[in-house]
Amino acid sequence: MLQPKWIWYPGDFEIYHSNLVHSRREDYGMEYPPVWMQYSPYPRVDCRKTVKCEEERTIIVHTNPGTMGMVTISGFPRHFTVNVPITLPAGEYELHLRLYNTTGLPSCFIDDTYYGTDESWRVSNGSFNYVQAAATPAYTTLEKTPDVFAFAYDEIRPVAVEEVAGGTLYDFGKETFGPVCIGGIDPTDNVYVCYGESREEALDWENAYVHQMVSGVETAHLVPRAFRYIHVRCGKKCDLTLQAQYEYLPICDVADFSCDDPMVEKIWDVCAYTFHLNSREFFQDGIKRDRWVWSGDSYQSFMTNNYLYMDPEITKRTILALLGKPPYDQHVNTINDYTLYLIISLWDYYFATGDDAFVRLYWPRFKALYAFVLGRLDEDGQMVQRPGDWIFIDWSEMDKSGPLCAEQILLWKAALSMASLAILCNEDAAPYREQAADLKKLIDERYWDEEKHAYIDCYTSGKRSVTRHANIFAILYNFADEARKTELMEHVLNNDAITQITTPYFKFFELCARCSMGDLASAQKLIASYWGGMIENGATSIWEQFDPQAKGAEHYAMYGTPYGCSLCHAWGGGPIYLLGRYCLGVYATEVGYKTFCVQPAAGIYGEFHGVVPLPGGSVRVDYKDGTLSVLTDCDGGTLRINNETYPLHNGQKLEINCTL
Amino acid sequence: MLQPKWIWYPGDFEIYHSNLVHSRREDYGMEYPPVWMQYSPYPRVDCRKTVKCEEERTIIVHTNPGTMGMVTISGFPRHFTVNVPITLPAGEYELHLRLYNTTGLPSCFIDDTYYGTDESWRVSNGSFNYVQAAATPAYTTLEKTPDVFAFAYDEIRPVAVEEVAGGTLYDFGKETFGPVCIGGIDPTDNVYVCYGESREEALDWENAYVHQMVSGVETAHLVPRAFRYIHVRCGKKCDLTLQAQYEYLPICDVADFSCDDPMVEKIWDVCAYTFHLNSREFFQDGIKRDRWVWSGDSYQSFMTNNYLYMDPEITKRTILALLGKPPYDQHVNTINDYTLYLIISLWDYYFATGDDAFVRLYWPRFKALYAFVLGRLDEDGQMVQRPGDWIFIDWSEMDKSGPLCAEQILLWKAALSMASLAILCNEDAAPYREQAADLKKLIDERYWDEEKHAYIDCYTSGKRSVTRHANIFAILYNFADEARKTELMEHVLNNDAITQITTPYFKFFELCARCSMGDLASAQKLIASYWGGMIENGATSIWEQFDPQAKGAEHYAMYGTPYGCSLCHAWGGGPIYLLGRYCLGVYATEVGYKTFCVQPAAGIYGEFHGVVPLPGGSVRVDYKDGTLSVLTDCDGGTLRINNETYPLHNGQKLEINCTL
Prior knowledge:
The structure is a homodimer. In chain A, 29% of the residues lie in helices and 24% in strands.
């Protein structure tokens, strides 16, 4: 039985919502457009399907607001219009819907079990090139059109209300996000509404990131924003009401984690909540600011997603928002490394899900993006800074006077990803493989320092300085062989003379690299001190950055402003990935988890318990008192401990006495 | 002194208005989206300029509706917002305006004689690639924003009002276009408003192309539409008022023409009026229907434009609307020939104006479009029908079973145009020249029929049929040499056994070809019979098609519907070109009319008088009683009569006794 859905041109739902999302950043009451190119949906879309139906039926081709259209049906000499009933006698017809939306997303909906719109329709951008229509289960009714993102809403109430600083301060008890409605306003008055992730921010109109002055209305419906605290101040005496809703993406957690340190469970829960808040139309960096989609941040969010919800939809949406559409004149987010992460992400997405249809559909765009990358390499095939490029890697002192080693390792990894994707798309992988092989040789020749036992940042200046970044990538991506990876652990990662990573963003990569080398304990210790440190300092969601030395409101300062630090940042979700991947030890060994491995490690924990999602199921791992038990409802699992392997049978708990 | 103007990314004003224009077609009260791909403006635009000013000034960066923005000024640590005053002390600043419009055209305006926005600003689509900002003199005030096309308006009044068919029929005396306002409506009533280019159409609600039912308002402001007649009918008794405005592009005619046949002057005036009505945002095909921009029709309009107004702006706008932006997945208007006309048009535009900046700015798009053409040629380099292509040439019986000769001659002409354009852009013309040379050889080998003394349509079927089309192109574009052109005149154009051209569209090409071979008389006779025939049948503007055998309302039928024939069609303006080019005899002999020739011919006229526009001036030609006089206010002119040449001196009338 066909489930009718709103349909549109693949990728344009994401491009449309990306434009909405990226127009919402607020800085001190000012608009803040994104610093990169954005794209547009195709204004003209054709939809076609041939349907045979043995009975007469009356259908309506509904269009969303802003979409005009015309309906041509084989056998009918005159065309029909949209949004009015059309009666079709029994028979076989080719339906051709021609849509046009000059301001938004062209979309249509036929609510009929025979003629209904769904992914079985073919769509084009007005050209002859038809592809499968896009749709999602979120838009299956006439009322819910895809121009409005399908969030869920729960009413939330303040846990404390306080008269302070000439107004009322509402404390919702924890970081949250959603629309606020203020009633009882005297329309002749000016009402000042100041949002705060911290109490201090809400009370500091001058320096708070998000505030709004309301006047001329009795009831103000304010747009969804991040807050824990809201301070409302009237010019005149007033008696206001305030209602708030939590706006969220209704995805259920599959994962869970606890251990003998009760603080870790608390950290894990706050990480999960933080990650939920940042899982919206797309993975955002932070819900107060930037509220933008950054490829580097998203790359880490994709990893965490697979260990918390395993929701392919948000990963696909995020990839498509970042990808835009050709022609490409700019790196993703203007950052060279971020283009490479996006390419690597596509392969990772495929490896986790086995969703080859998605890869094939967008393969031409990825090839165009990669052609843009190749067109800007230097004569040696290295990624270098061209006009308009941002060679980022990390907020860190690094010798960037010439090509960077870290960037070339990412390029090598991206080339390998392109090779694997090419094979999937029945195309020649050899050029990508050759590029990767040439790059590997070049990197080892030019950046490896035998005396320092490390990859240097850059060879052009002669400084031969070493930072952690390239060496972390060399471990993480298995660029280096086992012997050299061990060498890098000793001479770089465990060498205090090498400057420490300072950003949680890159710290995550370091922890992944350490864990992959068996050093789970480092991650566990940092989770306790760094993540735990925030919670001890009152965090209800994980912050963009944390300095254990800072005191009070000093924690909220960053980028030279008192509340510049986002107090709810997606990359704070890292422990969910780290603990799921390296403590519970679950990972795919074949595409789409057709086979997977459970390789638990205790590290510093005496016991641990947790669940990791799998496609269509999960795996539960418990370790306590020398007994390890593993239970999964999926096929293909293998338990690996102490160099032994044990098959996992779907639905049968495996218990083994062991010391981890 | 700087004249501040609204600025935008080049080409996007045209793409934005093209979307508006193409969303306005109405067919029997139904929406009718264009049948081809449309494009979108870039949503993110950056604008930059460094300005030095010796005094303190306060500026505002205004944005048009829908555009958000942010202002960064060198030396100021925090950014500014748009639409609020910013005070700049004396000094030198780099201004960087970051605009974002997710639904329309990003545009901004600084109204300041120092910091003001104009074409001296640089803009990008959010990438690093900056180009000169686009602006037009039509948008130089805060109030007039570029989202609303700058038409002029005159109030117009009906010449007759008649109670008929249960309503009131307003006759405005001639074809016109504009908004209508109906007042005094009973909001509980349904008021039926029916537009007619003919009286019959206005009175025939069922079959009229454009009609609207109004209810729920006291005053109805109806969108601008084409009409001569408007019939208004109420359900209840009513006492309505009707006001109408003529909406038009304020361009002045430079040209003029008269001769000893007074009917020709009348025809010329109706042609000019028809052409004005169709000269809007872009050259449209017809003002009632389709109201679309077609490249073939536009190509002819560009020619007429140069002999009526010589307005480069509307030609550029039309080229840009047709051109869209890469990537190209479809031929212009889906028609292969129409892509080729657009390429030829760019060279023609340059040759008429010398506007090399325009060519250089859009050269990358033309190259991408041409790459699309090349990518779809067959193994012999011929233009063939690929999926989604429409090989049109003309509404005419033609052997289209394989590659068409007419299409290949157009491709040859386009390749030569690309070669000339490449040279202008300092690029290698050789590949285009070689392509043209190869094509010429192929066409002569495969399509020339020595026995028929003609180019055949197609060789694959073995039918070897001859139509006029390819042979007209062979003359018009000097594909054939002089001897063969004479052969073609005798054996094809003057051969009654070859099927006549039936469409005014291609008839225009035939007349051009005939005139170029000295046969002005044919054009003059057809102007009298065909164009004059319409006027004798009551035309107040030139129709899409005219059958002298038809009677009464039969004239209005076409495409199988009673009023399918547009009664105001741009290509009706052809006589303006033909008489200016071949009777008055004015044409450029160097780029931008740096030199030009006046080579008058009388044909069947005993006397004639006229003016032809030149860039920045005009030339007046009078011939009466054996005296020819020529006066121009431009340099570079040469009079050529009877194989003699005479220099024309700016401002000095040249009089010569001669027989033309």
